[in-house]
Design a protein that fits this description.
The chain has 292 residues and is of the alpha+beta class. Helices cover 22% and strands 29% of the residues. It is built from six helices and 15 strands. The strands form two sheets. Strands 6, 7, 8, 9, 10, 11, 12, 13 and 14 form a nine-stranded mixed beta sheet that branches. β10, α5 and β11 form a beta-alpha-beta unit. The longest helix has 18 residues. The chain is globular and about 50 Å long. The chain starts with 7 loop residues before the first strand and ends in an 11-residue tail after the last strand.
């Protein structure tokens, strides 16, 4: 099934040039933030990750006043839209440069933003997932960062067009579970809530960071093998747009797993709801420490 193009409510920044290094080489980073009536969810964590990504690419973070002005404009556009359900996409990429990969450190960046309409997410959603045939490569230099070069995730999600399922799980070439196409993974097994360590092409999710701070969840990093999926009591994809989505794993024989009783299902939902009520802001003051 082909999804309809996103409905754009507002956008800012210079027109995209075909010489823009973000366009040509993926030389930049981006963040996708959930807009709520209380503000942007997990704004400080998103800005810290954006700055870490720019630093890894030897690019300077945007000036604080420029970023604050952009967020103010986004807030006004969101409030004028009349829609509660929207996402803000923030892009920071290396500006136009000469042909070729070579550029200097501290190359100028371009900041762009776009506000998109988002479909309402149903509470306590469950979706059917399978394992993608594509295997993610190792990429230690960019591990955990939300850089613009997401072609590995595009390849990993391609089977969704042919398979009868809603989500795909991605593994690396060693057969270790990495993530879902749209979020980090949590797997409940033997009374523990486990998550794969961030490595290779994985993104260090802002919601996963938040959930790991919750003592009642006791999330532990562990290597997750594909063979663990049929034995899991629960499986979730977590991200800062949809929250925690419970996954039902369907194996190659068509059998479904992970629908049984879960010790962590309710605490996980409550932890997400608490964060949504507490961790939303439009102000850069809430993101102290994100700028040099």
């Amino acid at each position: 099934m082909t999804e309809a193009p996103a409905t754009v409510l507002w956008q800012a920044g210079p027109p995209l040039s075909l010489s823009d290094r973000g366009w040509c080489y993926g030389d930049g980073v981006f963040e996708t933030l959930l807009c709520t009536p209380r503000g942007l969810w997990l704004l400080p964590r998103h800005l810290r990750r954006l700055e870490r990504g720019l630093a890894a690419l030897a690019l300077e973070a945007p000036p604080r006043d420029q970023l604050a002005e952009l967020l103010d404009e986004a807030r006004s556009a969101y409030e004028c839209s009349g829609s509660e359900h929207a996402v803000l996409k923030l892009f920071a990429s290396a500006a136009d440069g000469p042909r070729g990969y070579r550029r200097g450190r501290g190359h100028p960046i371009v900041l762009r933003a776009q506000l998109q309409l988002r479909a309402a997410v149903q509470a306590n959603t469950t979706v059917v997932c399978r394992v993608s045939s594509h295997r993610l490569p190792e990429s230690a230099a960019l591990s955990g960062l939300k850089h613009l070069a997401r072609v590995e995730q595009v390849l990993g999600a391609l089977p969704l067009a042919d398979w009868v399922c809603d989500e795909l799980l991605l593994a690396d070439k060693a057969g270790r579970l990495c993530c879902a196409t749209a979020g980090n993974l949590l797997l409940e097994c033997a009374g523990e809530l486990l998550t794969p360590p961030v490595h290779g092409s994985m993104i260090e999710g802002t919601l996963l960071q938040t959930l790991r701070d919750q003592e009642e969840l006791r999330i532990r990093e562990a290597t997750l093998d594909l063979s663990m999926l049929p034995q899991a009591n629960g499986l979730w994809s977590v991200n800062s747009i949809a929250g925690a989505v419970r996954l039902i794993f369907q194996d190659d024989a068509g059998q479904q797993h992970g629908q049984g009783d879960s010790h962590f299902a309710t605490p996980l939902i409550h932890a997400v709801d608490r964060s949504l009520a507490r961790d939303c802001s439009w102000s850069l003051a809430a993101a102290t420490g994100t700028r040099r």
